[in-house]
Design a protein that fits this description.
Layout: H1 2-13, H2 19-47, H3 50-68, H4 88-91, E1 95-97, E2 100-102
Antiparallel strand pairs: 1-2
């Protein structure tokens, strides 16, 4: 029973993300955290409340986490096309490792 629940949770959290999606996620994370930091600083400065500044930055960090961490489909718009196993393109290349030729 627990293994089935764990498997379902893992299927929900595990998702493909391509290299372009990784670049987008990194850029989006940087922009969101910079914006949250600026907003938190301004709120804390204007209201002269350090705790409100910290709570604002914590809320923004949680929001950024919820936006970035799930494997959203827009992070996998450019999937990698791998060569099929044993294709003619790889058969021509002779790889030698420890004196043995690998196919």
């Amino acid at each position: 029973m627990a293994e089935q629940v764990l498997s379902r949770v893992q299927d929900l959290l595990e998702g493909p993300i391509d290299f372009e999606g990784q670049r987008q996620a990194e850029l989006l994370t940087t922009l969101l955290l910079a914006a949250v930091g600026a907003v938190a600083f301004v709120v804390g400065f204007v209201l002269q409340d350090i705790f409100l500044c910290l709570y604002t930055s914590l809320a923004g960090t949680i929001l950024t986490f919820l936006i970035i961490v799930p494997p959203w489909p827009f992070f996998n718009r450019h999937p990698i096309q791998w060569l099929p196993r044993g294709s003619s393109a790889t058969a021509k290349v002779g790889i030698v490792m420890d004196g043995q030729k690998l196919n």
